[in-house]
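Query structure, 234 tokens:
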């Protein structure tokens, strides 16, 4: 009886077009990740329950997304009984957090308290329900980024990929490198993963689950519905 290894990276697309076998998507196998996703999926969960489930899932995804990525510095700390060699997260290189409104605010609620140093730049995208095209109504990104900036994009639902592709393209046009961009999502679907994988070969995605498909309105099935509406009771 052998144990499964903990989650591992998989290519963004597991079907025919495997993009040179690149491992770009990570789905935690942690039972709490699965549990809080289940609570968020449940249509009977009211907004306060939905929000706290999304925030807990986001906390787990955030821990995974920054593992081995945050820069650290060595130091020493005096304890009450001695001196300890310590490793700190380098406060001089704050993580750039880009939540996509509205639901991104809820999923990465914990980022500002879990990360010793971060800068948050909000972007808002709204979808035309007819064309399914997303367009920006808010963009607080800095004029310039550098390839060394570590950028965490928070898009709760990666469905068609229309929004997240625009945001990552915008980040790259401002100087960020896809090798230093990570996307956190509660649920994602193959069209978005395909769109990201084709354009950004080094970007990584950390998601609660990969669902099978989209419906005719572009919603993920089974998904969890309209994440923004459910988080804010609208
Ligand atoms: N946006 C949502 O909120 N839910 C989906 O299923 C797809 C896009």
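Result returned for the query:
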């Amino acid at each position: 009886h052998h144990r499964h290894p903990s989650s591992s990276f998989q290519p963004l697309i597991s079907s025919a077009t495997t993009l040179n076998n690149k491992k770009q998507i990570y789905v935690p196998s942690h039972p709490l990740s699965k549990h809080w996703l289940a609570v968020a999926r449940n249509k009977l969960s009211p907004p306060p329950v939905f929000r706290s489930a999304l925030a807990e899932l986001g906390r787990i995804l955030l821990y995974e997304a920054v593992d081995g990525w945050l820069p650290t510095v060595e130091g020493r700390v005096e304890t009450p009984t001695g001196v300890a060699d310590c490793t700190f997260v380098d406060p001089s290189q704050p993580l750039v957090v880009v939540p996509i409104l509205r639901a991104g605010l809820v999923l990465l609620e914990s980022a500002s308290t879990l990360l010793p140093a971060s800068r948050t730049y909000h972007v808002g995208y709204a979808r035309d329900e007819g064309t399914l095209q997303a367009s920006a109504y808010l963009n607080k990104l800095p004029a310039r980024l550098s390839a060394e900036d570590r950028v965490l994009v928070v898009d709760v639902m990666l469905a068609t990929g229309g929004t997240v592709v625009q945001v990552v393209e915008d980040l790259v046009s401002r100087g960020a490198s896809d090798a230093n961009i990570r996307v956190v999502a509660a649920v994602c679907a193959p069209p978005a993963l395909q769109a990201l994988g084709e354009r950004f070969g080094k970007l990584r995605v950390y998601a609660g689950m990969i669902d099978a498909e989209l419906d005719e309105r572009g919603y993920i099935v089974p998904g969890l519905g309209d994440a923004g509406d459910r988080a804010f009771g609208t």
